[in-house]
Design a protein that fits this description.
- The protein is of the alpha+beta class.
- The chain has ten helices and 13 strands.
- It has two domains: 107 residues, Beta-Lactamase (2-Layer Sandwich); 203 residues, Heat Shock Protein 90, CATH 3.30.565.
- The strands form three sheets. The chain has a six-stranded antiparallel beta sheet, with helices on both faces.
- The chain is elongated and about 100 Å long.
């Protein structure tokens, strides 16, 4: 029995309800980080219980005498700087006492509790992410409905924007070295532009050369919208609308900030747009300034448009 108990990681205790003293086996003393002695008082153990759980555990133990059948109490204890989760289990009701003593076990359930906390954190993060994506989808639907004239045109533009978001979020994963929490910038931009690269005549005409840096989830969403909008405009009116067109996307860093330059060459003659621009332009400006804390400027050169984005490095990591 002792070997089975040891193999199961079970620590034994008995509680004298009359004088409030505990008797524990060797494993229990190790679990609590105490020097082995004959008996300890309940208050001796309480001193090691996490302050946030202490009152709850005291009340729960006093209430066990009124419980019929088995009970289980999970709580945290502090062993030097380490926090452990303990599960105390036993049988309640005075009828279960033997010579004034109540018996039970302690189990170290730290691993299980950490897994549960990790699952709760993941569930909360996924819920937050889904809510954000739904809000973005609603916003894109409203914007697209105002910038298109037919249902077919709206469906095409909205599908393109949502697909770009999907490609960005496919790359969302932790990156070693605290370089952000979603993707590497170069990988993200390459994936976002890959659909335009696969259009036969454009194969090999898109070049991406940017510094190695991490991109956070929110920034990945903003960049997906920005570069999908730029690529769509290029496909309609710019370099990607012709077989001879070339698109070059380069970047340089300045301290923690980054400047991305979108250069189109080999396409039709470029002229600046008339008026204040459509909803796509507003979406670009809103994403660059509002979400990434940066600026966007255009050079409408006859050889091809040049778009310069100056972005805050701290915003890219979020």
């Amino acid at each position: 029995m002792r070997r089975a108990i040891h193999a199961a990681g079970v620590a034994l205790w008995s509680w004298n309800v009359g004088d409030d003293r505990f008797a524990m086996d060797e494993h229990a003393f190790k679990l609590w980080g105490l020097v082995k002695s004959g008996e300890v008082k309940f208050e001796d153990l309480s001193a090691h219980i996490h302050p946030a759980d202490r009152d709850r555990v005291r009340a729960a133990f006093k209430a066990t005498r009124g419980i019929t059948g088995p009970y289980e109490i999970d709580f945290r204890i502090m062993v030097e700087e380490e926090i452990r989760w303990i599960s105390a289990r036993g049988l309640g009701d005075d009828a279960a006492l033997h010579e004034g003593q109540m018996f039970g076990v302690f189990l170290d359930v730290t691993g299980r509790k950490q897994a549960e906390e990790g699952n709760e954190l993941l569930a909360g993060e996924m819920s937050h992410r889904v809510k954000n994506l739904l809000a973005i989808a609603v916003g894109l639907t409203n914007i697209t409905s105002q910038s298109t004239t037919t249902a077919k045109e709206m469906a095409q533009e909205l599908t393109g924007r949502l697909t770009a978001l999907g490609r960005a979020h496919d790359l969302v994963r932790p990156i070693p070295g605290s370089q952000g929490h979603a993707a590497l910038l170069g990988d993200l931009l390459s994936v976002l532009l890959s659909p335009y690269e696969d259009l036969g005549a454009f194969k090999g005409r898109i070049r991406v050369s940017v510094p190695r840096m991490g991109v956070g989830e929110s920034a990945a969403t903003a960049l997906a919208l920005i570069f999908h909008e730029l690529a769509t405009n290029s496909l309609k009116y710019g370099a990607l609308s012709m077989d001879t067109g070339i698109l070059d996307l380069s970047g340089v860093t300045d301290d923690d900030d980054i400047t991305l330059t979108w250069t189109e060459r080999g396409g039709p003659k470029v002229e600046p747009p008339n008026g204040a621009g459509g909803y796509g332009s507003k979406l670009l400006n809103r994403s660059v300034s509002g979400q990434l804390g940066g600026t966007i400027t255009y050079d409408w050169s006859p050889k091809g448009v040049v778009v310069v984005l100056r972005l805050k490095g701290e915003r890219l990591a979020k």
